[in-house]
Structures are given as C-alpha cells and as structure tokens.
Design brief:
Helices cover 65% and strands 0% of the residues. It has a single domain, classed as Arc Repressor Mutant. The chain is globular, with a radius of gyration of 13 Å. The model has no long low-confidence stretch (mean pLDDT 89). The protein starts with a helix and ends with a helix. This is DNA sulfur modification protein DndE. InterPro entries: DNA_S_DndE (IPR014969), DndE_sf (IPR038472). Pfam families: DndE.
C-alpha cells in the first residue's frame, strides 16, 4: 500500500514535529476522514509516494475495522481501488491533523 507523495510528505513533517510515526498518523487521518463524512469517488489519483508498506504495517491493530469500513462504504470496488480509497481518506484526514507543531497540541485536539 502506498500514498500520494503529498500525503507522505505531510506525514513525515508531522513525525518531525510530534514524533508520531507515519503509519500511526495515517491511521488517525483515515478515521478522522471517515468521521468527517468524506467519500472517495473513483479517480486517476496517482499513488506516487516512496514509502510502500504492507497492509499490516500501515493499518496495525485497526486492520479489521479499516477494511470493514472500506467494504461497507465501497462494496463495488476491487482491492486496487480499495487501496486508492484508503489513500484518499488518509489524504483528506491529513488536512485536519497536519498543522500540529508538537505532541501536546496534537493529543489535545485529537
């Protein structure tokens, strides 16, 4: 699984400021996006990030919940499109969490 380069850069910056690893921040961003009501619409989004990790590393303990939410909201999508939907949700969710400059602010606002 991989993200867009833009999302990946935002995750890396967030790690510098807060110490939260990109995979954990991606999980938080995904769920923040789902809560906000964002919905993925199939597009030609280019997943061009260089950080390519397996599903377990990206999703960790949230793998079942994440997959279930994606299957409920996007039952018609194949696995490749599901990965794009996940990446779109991470990108959307990053808009809410990318600006935190320290762990205290981050945890207070999550």
């Amino acid at each position: 699984m991989q993200l867009t380069r833009q999302s990946e850069e935002q995750l890396k910056r967030l790690k510098i400021y807060t110490g939260i690893t990109p995979n954990v921040a991606a999980r938080l961003a995904f769920f923040r996006s789902m809560e906000s009501g964002f919905r993925y619409h199939s597009d030609e989004r280019k997943l061009d990030g260089s950080l390519i990790l397996d599903k377990i590393t990206w999703l960790g303990d949230t793998v079942q919940a994440t997959e279930l939410l994606l299957k409920i909201h996007y039952p018609q999508l194949n696995q490749k499109e599901i990965a794009k939907a996940w990446a779109a949700h991470v990108e959307d969710g990053m808009t809410a969490i990318r600006s935190y400059k320290n762990l205290k602010d981050f945890t207070f606002n999550i």
